[in-house]
Amino acid sequence: MLKKIIMVLAVVFAFQYFYAGSATVKESGVKHDNVVLYATSWCGYCKKTRAFLAENDIQYTEYDVENSEEGRQQFEALGGNGVPVLDIRGTVVHGFSIKKFTEALKQNKLM
């Protein structure tokens, strides 16, 4: 039983480690003047994304993709299949990466 628990924990930690570093950046084709976060209430990386935005005084609109039909539709249109997704004036970052967030914010002159 202990071996199974250790194995499950190892898989969870490995997934989190690789997922956190696998953020991708794409252009959405839709330019706007906003920063939009697509997230869920329970997601740890979403919480870290909110903290990053707050620490850098970045104003944003947030959609909970589980509770907002409008947010879910936009999220799916951006190719979202995991959270967080951060849309920075049309530059979309899938996944959590402070480096990618910072690059996109600087590219759009928000930092």
Would you kindly provide a brief summary of this structure?
By secondary structure, the protein is an alpha+beta fold. It contains 4 helices and 5 strands, in the order H-E-E-H-E-H-E-E-H.
Tags for this model:
111 residues; 19% strand; alpha+beta; 45% helix; 5-stranded mixed β-sheet; Glutaredoxin; 4 helices
Structural description of this entry:
By secondary structure, this protein is of the alpha+beta class. The protein has a single domain (23-107), classed as Glutaredoxin (3-Layer(aba) Sandwich). The protein is 45% helix and 19% strand. The longest helix is centred in the N-terminal third of the chain and has 19 residues, at 2-20. The chain is globular. The model is unreliable at 12-22 (pLDDT under 50).
Radius of gyration: 15 Å
Question: Helical segment tally?
Answer: 4
Distance between the termini: 50 Å
- Helix coverage percent: 40-55%
How does CATH name the architecture? 3-Layer(aba) Sandwich
Decide which structural class fits the backbone: alpha+beta
Residue stretches low in confidence (pLDDT < 50, at least 5 long) are 12-22
Order of helices and strands: HEEHEHEEH
CATH topology: Glutaredoxin
**Oligomeric status:** single chain
Major beta sheet summary:
5 strands, mixed
Q: What's the CATH first level?
A: Alpha Beta
